[in-house]
Amino acid sequence: MKIAVFSDSHGELELMNSAVAGYRPDMVIHLGDFSGDAHELKRKYPRIPFTIVRGNCDPVSTDNITEFLSLGGSRVLITHGHMSQVRIDLLAIEYTARSAGADVALFGHTHEAIHTVNKGITLFNPGAVSSYEKTSWGQIEISDNKLTFNITEI
User: Fold this and answer.
1) Homologous superfamily of 2-153 in CATH?
2) Angle between helices 13-23 and 35-44 (to 10 degrees)
């Protein structure tokens, strides 16, 4: 199974479209900030399941702030990250994941790609699809109930 993970698209729908067209994922996750971009992409790819959360730049969105998925035997927290103050440090997002019984936390907000494991919790931020410095998106591949994470710069 292949999952495309985007965050902070800020209107860069074409970059996400190119990534989905080339990668051909089985699922797409959008971690907020211009979640409307993800809904537009979802209309273009109606057969691909999408999970979309809202970020701090999505004040009128009806998407949830937090979602949970079960992927490859792991419980995955999906959030934008602003409520956990991820720009300051990653302790709160790690605590939130741990207290919710999640093995993985997917988040955005910082516009910086991160993939680290801390005390058994995988923290993954795909970076920003729209960024003035680095533009990136993430991939999660699941094989034999094992999750593999990758970040691709655009």
Assistant:
1) Metallo-dependent phosphatases (3.60.21.10)
2) 40
